[in-house]
Amino acid sequence: MQRAKSEGSYQWQHASEILSGAGSASLQLGSFAFNSMVASAARERLWQLALSLQQEMLLRNLRLDVYSYASAFNAVRGQDTAVELCSTIMTDMFSKHVMPNTVVLNAAIIAVSALAWEEALAYYAMMKDLSLEPDLITLSSAMSACTSGSAWRLAIQLFRQAEMQPNIVTSNAAISACSAGNLWQEALAVLSHMEADDISYVGAISACRSQKQWQLALDLLQNCPGNVIACSAAIAVLEADGRWQFAVALLDKMRRRGPSPNVVTYNSVISACGKGQQWQRAIDLLAEARKMKLRPGTVTLNAATSACEKGRRWQHAEQLLRDGEAAKLRIDAIGFSAATSACEKGWQWNHALQMLQEMHRRRLLEVVSCNAALS
To answer: Which residue ranges traverse the bilayer (predicted)?
Structure first.
């Protein structure tokens, strides 16, 4: 990846040098050469350079075309100001009497999809207003934008209303939307009409979580047993229903046969053990994750601390926080709240108040912690 980035940096730097040299030598570079340089800058996400090159084209009386604008949209993708930049680019495009095509609007949808699903749908609607035919890229990008923005109902609606044969990308986007909306039956319906891959099954398994369809999740897992993400998703379903025995059994199976569990796997198993009042097992699993050098973080620590809180083990909860500090972990309000509640359940009022004072010092004090100490 570093090599690719270096090569890309070289390309746009070389393009800039050519541009500078062309100016000094009075060379007449055409639209094709400029568009190539804009595309090179876009690949590196150097949106300022890309837009500057387009301004240079205008100064040289070169016409901007759909390729120029498609590259501009690609260049601003992922920027915090992508929504505003895309609006400016689109306005400029119409002012220059360049009509966007499907490729251009796809680039605009993708550019804003992670920030504003409403804007993504506006570009999607613009396509129909201009009598353009959306393609599978349009559909999957618009659906992903809706799901990212918690508008999963709209994503599913787009999928159902699409007048095209879905491919695996759009079908997976539909399953992701169903998962976000906890619609496990709809997810299975989509799954049954496609040639599914691991991504499909992970989405379908995740859709089972809120309705506690843990048996179904385990059945789905049989289709991709070697995928650690799928295994972790299944364990998360087991955790949601408090099936800690099954979660531990699946973890043990992963240890023996693979795939190797990751920190997300351990987070869910530890949380499941907490729900099952298995505080000692939760602590042991945290120690095991550290031994395996998985670098358990704040989420893992919180799960173990919450397990101790449910088991009324205030000494262990406090020790976990101390261990977390020693490991340079960020101790957040969730961890402190769990430890404070553990002290309260153990009638350790002084310890609970000390926790609250430390939270206040760190500006983490929350109402839930005050209630735990004062109840």
So the answer is: none
